[in-house]
Design goal:
This protein is mainly alpha-helical. The protein folds into two domains: 201 residues, Up-down Bundle (Growth Hormone, Chain: A); 230 residues, Growth Hormone, Chain: A (Up-down Bundle), CATH 1.20.1250. It has 17 helices and no strands. The two termini are 41 Å apart. One of its GO terms (cellular component) is plasma membrane.
Length: 474
């Protein structure tokens, strides 16, 4: 009898454009994937330079160049992968096969990157690193991550479930980041330091990368797959770009992603702030914990808050808290206790936006499909992924440019006033400006009240020219 009632409920929800509520086990299965992904991406981002310089003997400048070149190609491959997902038609789904199939290769390549053959000459080592890093960054991580991110849209249309997926995803991601930060050097030392230490550590992390992603790719379900009006229709690259970049909500979503990652200059400046404002590099760990731990805790409550007050209102209320917290950071800029408290407040204010980012992009994908009739669930996430990577690249560059402009002197015991101001700017002032701009951007994302009617229209096949054009005018 219960199964019959559930079937009836599912049919009623489908007719109104809704998908069945997700069970917690499936949400956790989804979140597990981002835990795995970080054992490739965060591990590499955090330790590739020190491994290559101190163990392999390749200069930091060459490693930086390799990363920069691959990032340029990376942006193009993100966009291409979104189109591939939108054109994938398999009995397993659109995104799921890519998550599952690329996971073991990504784990293996991560292991190979931290096992540069010692018998290679300098040119051979550089070539090896470039090829492996290119395969990870441009091809396999891109394919895996774009597919994984787009699952938020494919799994459900329910706003609260989408926020819940984002919350659980980032809880797992932040746990992975903290684990990698805390245990990598410990494991390398425990396994004998040098190449042997990195080999065994990379082997463990390769398994921790591949297995969780394969579990996600195998067990989650795709329930919200946009249907083409013509089954033979292909989602071509140029038309997809056109329908995306002529939609104001998509442009706002790209801007929001860019601002979110530009705000993270505070992460790049943190070690300098600890070293030259508090004269103690170990303070970085305290500031990092104050920034990450509230996010992990707060993400548990984000779906309930959004469910009670709505996505846009909740996110903007959180951003106002973050503005207050950042203002306190200015006031307590040289008082460690006060700065830690202010950092916690700032982080708590950012919880709802971090939880809601994926939900916003998934919603925008639905709006674009409804208006154009072109399925873009993969493409919309691929382009926001490109925005993320551009933002990350600019963040690193901004910190470097600010330090140079401020007259930063490497390894000096005391920095000039200009350098201290540059460090404070990247740690506090610039992120504050980005938070204010994010508040404005979220305010302009005023689609939320229309979404139930848009999804109902989609469920009836009324997309493109057949849609109810009066909905957004109400």
């Amino acid at each position: 009898m219960e199964n019959f009632k559930q079937d009836v409920q599912d049919i009623e929800e489908a007719s109104s454009g809704k998908t069945p509520k997700l069970k917690m086990i499936e949400k956790l299965t989804f979140g597990l994937g981002d835990f795995g992904a970080n054992f490739s991406w965060t591990f590499i981002a955090s330790f590739i330079t020190i491994y290559m310089t101190d163990t392999v003997g390749i200069s930091a400048g060459i490693i930086g160049t390799i990363i920069l070149v691959c990032r340029i190609f990376d942006g193009f491959s993100d966009i291409f992968m979104g189109t591939v997902i939108d054109n994938t038609n398999s009995r397993w789904g659109k995104a799921k096969p890519w998550v599952f199939m690329t996971a073991p290769v990504l784990g293996l390549l991560t292991f190979m990157l931290f096992n540069v053959p010692g018998g290679f000459g300098d040119t051979g080592k550089i070539t090896y690193v470039f090829v492996i890093y290119f395969l990870i960054s441009v091809i396999f991580y891109t394919a895996n991550n774009v597919a994984y991110s787009s699952l938020t849209s494919f799994m459900t249309t329910d706003e609260k479930d989408r926020v819940s997926l984002g919350s659980i995803r980032f809880i797992f991601a932040n746990i992975a980041v903290l684990s990698i930060s805390a245990f990598t050097t410990v494991l390398v030392g425990a396994f004998g330091d040098g190449q042997q230490g990195w080999t065994w550590t990379a082997a463990i992390f390769a398994v921790l990368c591949a297995v969780p992603l394969m579990i996600t790719g195998w067990f989650v379900k795709e329930r919200n797959v946009a249907k083409r009006k013509n089954k033979e229709q292909k989602t071509s690259f140029i038309p997809t770009l056109k329908v995306l970049f002529t939609n104001k909500y998509f442009i706002l979503a790209i801007v929001l992603y860019l601002l979110w990652y530009l705000r993270q200059t505070e992460t790049g400046a943190r070690i300098y702030y600890a070293t030259y404002v508090f004269d103690n590099p170990n303070v970085m760990g305290i500031l990092s914990t104050a920034s990450l731990l509230p996010l992990i805790i707060g993400l548990f409550f984000a779906p309930q808050i959004v469910g009670a007050y709505g996505l846009r209102k909740s996110v903007n209320a959180g951003l106002l808290v973050s503005v207050f917290g950042t203002g306190l950071m200015i006031f307590f800029s040289e008082n460690l206790t006060g700065l830690v408290v202010a950092t916690v407040i700032n982080a708590l204010g950012l919880v709802l936006l971090q939880a809601g980012l994926s939900a916003i992009v998934a919603d925008v994908g639905d709006i674009v499909y409804w208006k154009s009739g072109v399925p873009v669930q993969g493409s919309v996430f691929s382009l926001t992924s490109a925005g993320m990577k551009i933002g990350q690249g600019l963040t690193a560059a901004l910190v470097g440019w600010a330090l140079q402009f401020g007259g930063y002197v490497a390894n000096a015991s005391v920095q000039p006033e200009g350098a201290i101001f540059a460090i404070k700017t990247m740690f506090i002032y610039f992120p504050l400006v980005m938070i204010v701009l994010m508040f404005i951007t979220v305010t302009l994302l005023n689609y939320e009240k229309f979404m139930p009617r848009i999804r109902a229209d989609i469920s009836k096949g009324h997309v493109g020219n057949e849609r109810d054009k009066t909905i957004l005018n109400d």
